[in-house]
Amino acid sequence: MRRLLETVLIVEDHDDSRMLLEDVLGQAGFRTLPAASGAEALRVLAAEVPDAIVLDLMLPWVNGVEVLATVRGIPALAKVPVLVVTATQTSAFDLRHYRPLAYMRKPLDVEKIVPTLQRMLTHPE
Question: Most buried of 4, 22, 96, 122, CB within 10 angstroms?
Fold first, then answer.
């Protein structure tokens, strides 16, 4: 059964950035699940499979690459599209084996977030 709203897990440790993403995605009609750390994201993912994930790489305790590797290792989550957002020097090439994946550098252009997620959800590979 198809959900009425597509759900996006937002994994961002900076409160202002996470709340901005929640606001932008909520206004675009997405249901959002916030997580302030990689460990919190993994707890959320154990309870619910989102339609997409927005994932910061620089996170406390469990970093974004560890979250991404865990997600790709779980069959129920393996094909969930992930939008990586980062200020690090990690490149899309470095993360190429974690597909489906999109990549945006910080500071984010929030006007590109919604179209990028919509494209990922309609054409995940």
Answer: 22
